[in-house]
Design brief:
- The structure holds two protein chains of two kinds.
- By secondary structure, chain A is of the alpha/beta class.
- Helix content of chain A is about 55%, strand content about 10%.
- In chain A, helix 12 packs antiparallel against helix 13 and helix 16 crosses helix 17.
- The longest helix of chain A has about 40 residues.
- Chain A is elongated and about 105 Å long.
- By secondary structure, chain B is an all-alpha fold.
- Chain B has two domains: about 110 residues, no CATH class; about 180 residues, Orthogonal Bundle (MetI-like fold).
- In chain B, helix 1 runs antiparallel to helix 12.
- Chain B starts with a helix and ends in a 7-residue tail after the last helix.
- Classes of the chains: A alpha/beta, B mainly alpha.
- Chain A: This is Dipeptide/oligopeptide/nickel ABC transporter permease/ATP-binding protein.
């Protein structure tokens, strides 16, 4: 459990039903505008033989460089006396054909290969991977030019080749989606029910991957049109096939005599391809659901706009203050109906050298409380009320740099999931050394020795090897020891441990708890241990605070709470210890759900 | 690491050979057309066949290709059928012109994208809107149009830069800079679109990960977390996009150098393809393919350095 609030974007990408995509598109002004323009321009292109006032290649002496508005030549004539408007219509037709061929081929090749490569085993996939590495090695437009003897300048053949060259993008999208979908249950269910491979591919997978493919199509069409125009501009292709590229070329060369001529095709090309890209963006938004507004990345502990002034504003340090004092703390997250409080007035204290267990089921707000003490709440979280003080110093309202002076030195953190909490790109030694140098201000040599000593202290058998290993090269238990070593490196006076054993094997769990207990005795640290596991609490804690639904429901010494639990919720949790042998070990959650 | 680099190099070489072989196969359908053009209006079917034989184009294709490849690996790309010029120096001299706009364009686009993407991801608000705006402009406006607008505004109207023409660096460095500035700007705009979006996206992902929170609790300063840890992890996908953008910009440059009348690779390739000058076409192909392969290899090696897991496979 790292956050209480699921990321809304995560859930919706795969689950937006078709109808709501349409509704979303119809509510998006950008989608409507660009969609209408695309349809209109495409219609002009398709109907060009009917609506063009002149033959696009028919030259008339009267119309040479005719200015816009000349009778019969609405946009004027070009350098050889051809009607610019008619050429624009026919260029649109060329563009439509290019878009259909280019995008069509790219989709056909990419989708089929993606389905095959993603659905069948590794052997087939390595074949398709090679094929697309090969296609990616062809040097883009140079290939289209080089193959001119083959295509004889017919833009339709050129677009066909372009389609193949564009297919790797589609292939990757489809392959990745299929690999993801394949893992989902319904494909297994389809297999069990005896559907053939082909039908599974067609019905289930294709349905699941349609969104990204539709979005991709809009971009492919824009690319095909822009490429065709670019090649025509270069002169690749027949001179009698009207194209924006050719028009831009002749208008550009004629810029002194008729400065407006190059503007028309430029505008038409820009609007047509631009609308495709913008429409594609709208489609993507519609398929992925409304995107949450991006928050300014996490900085300090931010108060909600409506927050009441903290109850106890303390200036300077107080002698009689506990190590940690949380008073009436409230934390809210934005929900669909305004901010929702997930921590509702929590108060607890930890004395110097004391070990306090913060116990509760998933979602009870215990991790958010711990994050608030460290000042690392998620960017969208707000402190709505209350106070968090470490050795009398108020944390609520402090900036990131003010909090930084406490972190590592005074208060430190051990996370739940060891692997995801180490930076995968640096060796264990490099990460710990940076940390030690930063907090203890020592030389590189000293820091290195400190880290090696620490690794030995946390009972890592071969410190030298682990020092130079990357996180993916060590086991989860080893990684958790590394994180503990980092947390205690600068002898903090308060350690926040968030489910430090949950992600580990049962045998490793006991060793890690022993290690924590030993370090606590040795350094005299206070520990706030966040857990759902009463077994862990009984093992190590002096006092307990039980949390449920964002509130503390019971506090007391470990002995008191175990012998005479007052709150029914606590009794439920305690009964669950008997079920500790349950496969997931997460008995509190089971109890919480059953209540 | 060395093993990893060698394996990547091996894959690159195999792919390069395959691409040139496929191109040769495709071109082989045009050999007769080529020779008819060569012989001019007097060509008869018999004389075409004879000439094909003289030139060795009637041998089995695999033998012909093997022969070409054997010379190519020694740097001998033959001579043009039409001008009798040696192919290799001609191809390379045009490549230099094209690369003198592509490489600065890509480098500047990469630097600006990283700055803008990191800024956008770590600040949100106005920087984020600027980054997304620039990215959108690059996606929406075709490079051809950017080029033409720049020429019209800065060269034709304001006369700040020369509209067309290429000045050799050796002749006048300032002239070279002036003649390449506008085309480079076009490529920077085109290249930034994809790279900025990628850097921004993967930086946002990285900054939301667990290890970033843990680094914050360790008391590390923000600059170290963003620029050292998150950026290094975001580097891998950004690098992939950058190497794909190289091919993109190479493609765009073919059109753009035409707008600015630079004697680059595109017009050279076009002329040779129009006349079906097979030795030159093959020269153009292999030099481009080697270029693409080298760029991919560099990307792979840098990726292996950035991402320790990539070295495994």
């Amino acid at each position: 459990m790292t956050t209480l609030i699921p990321d809304p974007a995560d859930q919706q990408i795969s689950s937006v039903p078709r109808r709501s995509v349409w509704r979303q598109l119809l509510r998006d002004p950008q989608a409507i505008m660009t969609g209408v323009i695309i349809v209109l321009l495409s219609l002009f292109g398709l109907l060009s033989p009917l609506i063009s006032p002149h033959d696009p290649n028919g030259a008339s002496l009267d119309a040479i460089n005719a200015s816009p508005g000349t009778a019969g030549y609405l946009l004027g004539g070009d350098e050889s006396g051809r009607d610019i408007l008619s050429q624009l219509f026919y260029s649109l037709q060329t563009s439509v054909v290019s878009a259909v061929i280019g995008a069509g081929v790219a989709l056909a090749v990419g989708v089929i290969a993606g389905l095959v490569g993603g659905y069948f085993g590794n052997a087939v996939r390595s074949g398709t991977e090679w094929l697309f590495s090969l296609i990616l090695t062809f040097p883009g437009l140079i290939t289209l030019i080089v193959l001119l003897p083959l295509t004889h300048g017919d833009y339709r053949w050129t677009m066909l080749v372009l389609g193949v060259l564009l297919s790797p993008g589609t292939y990757r999208i489809v392959r990745n989606l299929v690999l993801g979908v394949k893992k989902e249950l319904y494909i297994d269910a389809a297999r069990v029910s005896g559907l053939s491979d082909i039908r599974i591919l067609g019905r289930h997978v294709l349905y699941a991957v349609r969104g990204p493919i539709i979005v991709n199509t809009a971009f492919l069409m824009g690319t095909a049109i822009a490429s065709q125009s670019g090649l025509a501009f270069l002169g690749v292709g027949a001179k009698d096939v009207p194209s924006f590229g050719l028009m831009i070329h002749s208008g550009f060369n004629n810029i002194d005599a008729a400065p407006l001529q190059f503007v028309w095709p430029c505008v038409a090309l820009g609007v047509y391809t631009g609308c495709m890209v913008l429409f594609g963006n709208s489609l993507r938004d519609a398929f992925s659901g409304p995107r949450p507004k991006r928050q300014k990345p996490a900085q300090g502990l931010r108060l909600a706009a409506t927050a009441a002034p903290t109850s106890a504003v303390v200036d300077g340090e107080r002698v009689d203050e506990p190590m940690l004092a949380v008073e009436d703390l409230g934390i809210s997250f934005p929900g669909s109906t305004g901010p929702r409080e997930v921590v509702k007035g929590v108060s607890l204290t930890v004395d110097p050298g004391e070990v306090v267990g913060l116990v509760g089921e998933s979602g009870s707000g215990k991790t958010q409380t711990a994050f608030a003490v460290l000042g690392v709440l998620a960017p969208e979280a707000r402190v709505t009320r209350g106070s968090v003080r470490i050795e009398g110093r108020e944390l609520v309202g402090l900036s990131e740099s003010e909090l930084r002076s406490l972190r590592g030195r005074v208060v430190s953190y051990i996370p739940q999931e060891p692997m995801s909490n180490l930076d995968p790109s640096f060796t264990v030694g490099a990460q710990l050394t940076e940390r030690v140098r930063r907090t203890l201000k020592v030389s590189r040599q000293e820091a290195r020795q400190t880290v090696l000593d620490l690794l030995a202290r946390v009972e890592i058998p071969d410190p030298q090897r682990v020092f130079s290993s990357y996180p993916h090269q060590i086991s989860g238990g080893m990684a958790q020891r590394v994180l503990i070593a980092g947390a205690v490196a600068s002898r903090p006076r308060l350690l926040i441990a968030d489910e430090p054993t949950t992600a580990l094997d049962v045998t490793v769990q006991a060793e890690i708890l022993d290690l924590l207990r030993g370090l606590q005795k040795e350094f005299g640290m206070a520990i706030l241990l966040v857990t759902h596991n009463f077994g862990v609490v009984a093992d190590i804690c002096d006092r307990i605070a039980v949390m449920q639904g964002g509130e503390i429901v019971e506090t007391g010494t470990t002995r008191e709470v175990f012998h005479t639990p007052k709150h029914p919720y606590t009794r439920g949790l305690l009964d669950a210890i008997l079920d500790e042998s349950a496969p997931d070990g997460d008995s509190a959650r089971t109890i919480g759900a059953a209540r | 690491m060395l093993l990893y680099a060698l394996r990547r190099l091996g894959i690159g070489v195999v792919l390069a050979v395959l691409v040139t072989f496929i191109t040769y196969l495709l071109l082989s359908t045009s050999f007769r057309d080529m020779v008819s053009t060569l012989l001019g209006p007097d060509a008869t079917p018999d004389s075409v066949t004879g000439r094909l034989h003289d030139l060795g184009y009637d041998r089995p294709l695999v033998v012909q290709y093997g022969d070409w490849l054997a010379h190519a690996v020694r740097g001998d790309l033959g001579t043009s059928l039409f001008t009798s010029q040696a192919v290799a120096p001609a191809v390379l001299s045009h490549m230099v012109v094209t690369m003198s706009i592509v490489l600065p364009g890509l480098a500047i686009a990469l630097i600006l994208s990283v700055i803008l993407g990191v800024w956008a991801a770590s600040r949100s608000g106005a920087p984020d809107r600027i980054a997304q705006g620039i990215s959108l402009v690059g996606h929406v406006v075709p490079a051809l149009l950017t080029a033409i607008v720049l020429v019209v505004v800065f060269a034709v109207e304001l006369k700040i830069f020369p509209a067309t023409g290429y000045v050799q660096f050796g002749d006048s460095p300032v002239g070279w800079l002036r003649s390449t500035t506008l085309p480079v700007v076009v490529l920077v705009v085109a290249g930034m679109a994809a790279i900025t979006a990628q850097v921004r996206g993967s930086m946002i992902d990285e900054l939301g990960k667990d290890y970033v929170r843990t680094l914050r609790t360790a008391g590390l300063p923000s600059w170290s977390i963003v620029l050292k840890h998150a950026l290094r992890n975001a580097g891998s996908p950004a690098l992939t996009v950058t190497s794909l953008q190289f091919i993109q910009l190479f493609s765009h440059s073919v059109i753009i150098e035409n707008v600015f009348a630079l004697p680059g690779f595109g017009s050279f390739a076009f002329t040779s393809a129009q006349s079906i000058d097979v030795p030159v076409i093959m020269g153009v192909t292999i030099v481009s393919v080697v270029l693409v392969t080298v760029v991919n290899l560099i990307a792979d090696i840098v990726n292996g350095y950035l991402n320790p897991k990539a070295r495994l496979h």
